[in-house]
Amino acid sequence: SFFCNPGLLELSLGKFRNVLLNQTNPVEAVIRNIASNVTVIIFQVHAQQSDVVISFDKNPSVNSSGTGVDKGLVSILQPQQSVCTWYLRSLDASQVLSTAISIPYMEKDPIPGGCNLEFDLEVDPNIYLDYTLVDIHIKFAPANLGYTRGANPPSCDSGTGQNSRWRLRYDVYQYFLPENDLSEIVLMSHIRKMSEVQSIKANGIKMLTLTTDDKTNVYFSSLPGQGVIYNVIVWDPLWNTSAAYIPVHTYACSFADLVDNCTSLSKLSTKVFFTALAILGLFTCFFGHRFWKTDLFFMGFIFAGFFFFVFITRVTGLGYDVRLILTAVAGIIGGLFLVASWWRFGSVLLCMFIIGLVLGFLFSSTVVFTPLGDYRVFRDDVVFWVTFSSVALMIPVLFVGCLRILNILASGIVGSYAVILAIACYVYTSLAYITLDLLRRVLNDYFSRAYTNVPFQTNDFIILSVWTMLALSGVTVQLRRERSEVPFPPHPYLTWKRERERRSTNVLDPSHHIPPLRERIHNKLLHIKEFFQKEQPAGERTPLLL
Fold it and tell me: Its membrane topology, per UniProt (predicted)?
């Protein structure tokens, strides 16, 4: 239900209320008849993109208010207190839809943010979130032990034993909003699932547990355009009680930007690049082994383009569009080089090693894309890259005795995944992060600290089915068509050389009498030169007497 009265908002403990806020008329939120066994109330308000101000007083001060899209305050109740009051307003001139709730806690429940030493509020239950295109960073203040009304709060630095706050544990939860849905109503309905302890445990994904010895900040991979809600549950193992911080949400993008905003994330250059790659990939998926040179060009393009993009991003400060154009040029050169290498040297083993590496790269990326990639052991870059490289190299090694099968599998799987990357430019899908998260780890030294969990919803299942069907169809068609053919075409350079020798020695071959290429070009140029020469004047001509 919506509350529009600019004056008073009556609340009940544990009940959500939607409220329209504006800049000029603060809303007074009141809770009455609070039970005597309630010692702490956490009041919170949430909006999608416009900041709101929540405060204890009508005239907010730094130490008694909070500003943001997800903000809350802790009210420590005094003896005999049965009424609590807070004030709400927006910073936007227009009306802002928000939702508010107050959650009660008892004397044995821990107090989120009760040992805050970093932020402005004395007791700060808020989670502070920053994002970039690469990662999301959340941080929060440590909690304190609960206590009765009127008592002094337990000391935050009295010791590290089991009778102090150091026994507390922090469980960090993640929750994904529906894909491709940026509406306010959806956010308001889903953020309710991440506000109370039992609801968080039932709906959220537990990512990790922190002890008091750990820093209270966590990093996640950024998912631009995908709504994500984070929250933390602090747990007291002695009393087996828990309390929740203020949930915080992000789309890792801006609604206000004119370009590259939440509704148009992919640049035009990205769409053109991956659409062209998808067309070539789709052809390779079904005809890669038959058109061997095209297959080599496609794999060489990917191999050279990836490493060139990493190199140029690391060593230069060029803009994204320029880097993408140069990557396309480098990919074309790389593809042509692989084709030329095959034509000159005819080494099937060398070409298949490159193709096997590309398939191994995709397979290894898929392995670390699973929950295995978030294991703490892979936070170490040495362990991660040794494991990744070993898995990637395993593919060409396993198939060294059946190179045709390897090539058909590579063209079918890699070619179909190129189609998925093109789809991701127009419709959000988590499957694009199979390779994108790996690229982020290569390019960013600190991405190893980020948890890379992604949503897997109906849209992803559909696109995964498309990928599977394309790959299986491409591999099956090629296996059936090529089963009676030679494994690979003959060495083109040796074939050309033998043919040239045959023509030069066989005088009965009509092609034997065809002048060499250099002589034909020279004669053609002479013919063109004579065409432009002036005609000699008519008259008697005396032949030269020898």
Answer: Multi-pass membrane protein
